[in-house]
Structures are given as C-alpha cells and as structure tokens.
Design brief:
single chain; 297 residues; alpha/beta; 434 Repressor (Amino-terminal Domain); Endonuclease, Chain A; 2 domains; 6 strands
C-alpha cells in the first residue's frame, strides 16, 4: 500500500493516538512492529497517518498497550476504519481541506460544545448571515464564496440527523447585537435561534455583558467529543490558521473553560414552561426575544 500524499485530520489523530498509547506502554517502534509483523518504518508511517492499519493489528496493539476501555477501543477502531467520505466529499475541490476535516470530525461527534464571541455559531447561521461574513471578512481571499456558504449550511444537517447527538452553544451577547449583516438579516437570525432552541438536543445560552466574577474568554472554540472523552478534539480559530488540538491537557482545559462559561451564562429555557415562568427570571431565551424586539421597533 502506497503512502498517502495528503493526510486528513482524522488520519493524523488516529496515528497520534497509536503513538501515545505505545509510548505510554513503554514500547519502541521496532517492538510494536514485531507484535504485528511490521518493520519499524511501517510503524512510524502508521503513527504519522501516512498509511492505515487493519482492525486485527489494531486489536493486537491495543491489547499489548494495556488499553482495556471498551468504549475507547470501539471509537478508536471506528476512527481507523472510516473512509473519510460523506456529504462533504462533493465540496472537495471547492472549499479548503480544513473545512472538510471539520465536517468529518463533526460527523463522528456525539457531543459538540461551541463558544463564540463575535459571530453566531456556524451551525446556527441563516444563509444571509453566513453570506455577510464571507463576502466581507474573506473578500481578500480567493474563495468560492457561494460554495463556502453552501458548505456551511450543509453542515447544519447534523443538528437533526442523529437525535442523540447533543449540542451546547454559549454565545456572547456581543454576537447578537452586532448589526453588520443589516437589521433584516439579524431579525431573521435571532428568530432562527429561537426556533433552533426548541430542538430537544440543542442548548443555547447567552453570556451577557453583565456576567459576573471574571472577564469572558476571548477566543472562540469548538469541542467535539465522539463519545470517548480521550478522543475529543478542540478546534481553535486563529487569524492566520485553524488549530486542531487532541492532547489530554488541551481537551481538559477547554472542557473546563466551556463548563465555566456555561455556568456564567444565562440559563437556557425549557420551552414547555409557562409564559409566567419565562418572565420571572432573566434567561437566554428572554434576552434573544428582547434583542429581536429592539430590531423590530
């Protein structure tokens, strides 16, 4: 089997996990290779994501590495056997590879936790809002803007494709007050947030300007958990690049950060509550409704 010319985020992460497990078990690459009939260079290529690994060899390695968590083993095996193909494949020549990696990582997630500061989360954007972002912020880049918008809207199918997939969003109030798309678009966007809030697997919280105790976390991030916490991925956007983090320290740090932000944010609302209950306390639903009212007056 030839070596891959391009390595996806999933393939890279699979290899990194194999290397982490081997090193934790105190085995060298030649020793690990001897267990499955592979030479040392082949082990290195596998751990670098340049080539795949069949399930039988994976099982032998996991046994030798002392990995006995059945959930982790199953999720890692799934990561290794995935083909990388999905709805996003039709965009392969039209959007950046990082966008394809994100869609594939989201597709395998059981929990998606997203904190945003200045924009409504991509998974919650209406087309006109996404268009305002791409046509302004990316006008100096050579992008197929229509493809980027179409891709972003297609990503939103995961909100309803698996009822047991959980979504948690914490959005800073700033993102809901900025009017760069125009008032009409923001009205549609805020109304869409109220509609999406009704999905049983979606929780939207607003971090208000009046949040107490500490300054807000300054950068947006996305935590994707496939159902095995140690295989989670954190996606952090920087001005010049997007970073994928998979080490335990980063995962734990961002998970704690998200939980703290959620604690500081306004409560989400059970849509089944009475209107009297809704008006008795300040909550995310009420703040979004208030901002929508301000745009309508």
């Amino acid at each position: 089997m030839g070596l891959r010319g391009e390595i996806s985020q999933r393939q890279r992460r699979f290899g990194e996990e194999l290397q982490r497990l081997r090193l934790a078990a105190g085995l060298s690459a030649p020793e690990a290779g001897a267990l499955v009939g592979m030479k040392s260079p082949a082990v290195s290529h596998t751990e670098a994501g340049r080539t795949g690994l069949n399930q039988e060899r994976l099982g032998v390695w996991l046994d030798a590495y002392g990995c006995d968590d059945p959930v982790y083993r199953a999720k890692l095996a799934d990561m290794g056997r995935r083909t990388g193909k999905g709805w996003w494949s039709e965009f392969a020549d039209r959007v950046p590879d990082l966008a394809l990696d994100l869609a594939e990582t989201e597709d395998s997630a059981a929990l998606i936790a997203n904190y945003e500061t200045f924009y409504v989360p991509g998974l919650l954007q209406v087309p006109a809002y996404a268009e305002a972002i791409y046509k302004d912020a990316h006008r100096d880049r050579k992008l197929d803007v229509e493809a980027e918008i179409d891709f972003r809207i297609n990503r939103q199918r995961i909100l309803t494709d698996l009822p047991r997939r959980e979504f948690r969003f914490v959005v800073h109030e700033t993102a809901l007050r900025l009017r760069f798309p125009g008032d009409a678009v923001m009205r549609a966007q805020l109304a869409h947030l109220l509609e999406i809030s009704e999905l049983p697997n979606v929780t939207i919280q607003v971090l208000p300007f009046t949040a107490p105790k500490k300054p807000p976390h300054t950068g947006q991030f996305l935590l994707l958990d496939p159902g095995a916490a140690d295989l989670s991925t954190v996606v952090v956007d920087h001005p010049s690049h997007t970073e994928y983090l998979g080490d335990r320290h980063a995962i734990d740090t961002y998970r704690r950060t998200f939980n703290k932000l959620s604690d500081l944010a306004l409560f989400p609302v059970d849509i089944g509550q009475s209107s009297l209950a809704l008006s008795s306390s300040r909550d995310s639903w009420g703040l979004i409704r208030h901002l929508l009212y301000l745009l309508q007056t």
